[in-house]
User: What shape does this take?
Amino acid sequence: MTERQGTVIEGPVRVRFAPSPTGFLHVGGVRTAIYNDLLRLHAGGAFVLRIEDTDKARSDEAMTRQIQDALSWTGVRWDEGPFLQSERLPRHTERAQELLAADKAYRCFCTTEMLEAQRAEAQKAGGSFSYPRTCAHLAPEEIARRIGEGQPFAVRFRAPDESIRFLDLVRGDMEFPADAIDDFILLRSDGTPTYHMSVVCDDIDMAITHVVRGEDHLSNTPKHVPLFLALGGAVPVFAHLPLILGPDKKRLSKRFGATSVEEFRAEGILPPALYNYMVLLGWSPGEDREVLPREEMGRIFDVDRLNASAAVFDREKLLWMNGQYMSSLALDEVRPYLEPFLAEAGLAGADPARLRAALELHRSRSRTLRDLAAAVGIYFRDELAYDVPACAKFLADPDLPVHLAALRDHWMELPSFDKEALEAGLRAVAGERGLKAGALIHPARMALSGETGGPPLFDLVEVMGREETSRHLGHFIAFLRRGGALPEHQD
RNA sequence: GGCGCAUUCGUCUAGGGGUCCAGGACGUCGCCCUCUCACGGCGGUAACACGGGUUCGAAUCCCGUAUGCGCUACCA
Assistant: This one.
């Protein structure tokens, strides 16, 4: 941990995000991408996007496309790529062959069955298994003979005998004993390169200076470091990010709700809110500020402040963050993201001016875009569904229909249908009838929104407009007169 | 099993030996604002995993224990 002090990064960096396209982009992946984004933003340089699609069975073009969409939606910007690792396989093989030629790697003729047996035995004896270097020093003639016989072989890396050290920006100076790694495989017996070979080769070719990735790669790093060296590449600086946990402190799983960018998007989360929330899951600006735009975070981002312990994903706080952005962003910035939800709510063709006014009225009251789109629906409907249980107190007042009818008549005769006039009108009607304003306001709100809560009544009515207000009041009066029975078509 | 990493309010975190009977945020509770709801404001609630050291002094440094997690493939 001591080494962390003063590891602030100032020069240009080359960072990369290298997801494998196996479905949706999960929160862990997004956060990794975001920290890379911020590091690049802070220090300058380049962000390389590399798709690790070598596991062809699980990868396809659509998934690659999806990752790019999810990243750009989130607000992560990359400078180079996407590069497909699958297209670089020949290069990886070529580099592995170089290691073989330089005797930094060797052919291993051991069969999987043999290795499995040895591994099982070692486990039974209570120890850990590492490759016993059976083929590490075969005589050249022996090798030639076996190749001649057509025996398949894998290519193994000659792991160093010294302990391996590297710098991890999150955890400090790391040191692994030599026996922590064995002579791992570079090329499978079918000739294809393994993950370790591909990653290191690509990181070298792409001149990556900082590898920011998940903690699950921490134990792989002592394998990668000597491989960088053997291939003549500069060893990058590492930063291994802790995992993201679910509320049960286990690996985040679906049963606690959305876990992927696509799902958050579908729920109506704004990209900057997701981005902002994710950044805070493992990093803090060090001052008591939390809601910060990407550019600002980029300016003050500092790997020094990355947290080393796992964090529980808190959906509530994400929703809160979303609410912050929903109400503070300019409406025009929100609109593009909102559009699909409006369409879904059947409001695609709604009157633009009224829609806009309605959105302004409701956005600070909604936590998601989906909620917002649903909330403004009341301004564009022929009939409203009332919160029936909450209507009990209105039904208990036999004079209410008359009062509301008077209110409606008064409002309809107003020369100007604006909130000041509406309020003055309502207070006048209430006064004439010996009522408190609230005695009209609350039932009117129910009549015009179907709910007990919502924006200030006169704002609501102004946006609703004269015609709809009259109609909805009429419906509600009829509803009250029926004693609360719903018309046929409304159940 | 082996190796590694982690451990501050329910959750995200601040904290780099004294300024910490531990600060901020989400949540929660109460109050204010108010026609309701939300926003906002104010206040309350609640934490240094445990045990040993080191030190005049430890949340902070060291060692152990516990717990959690990761890795331990011819997967990535």
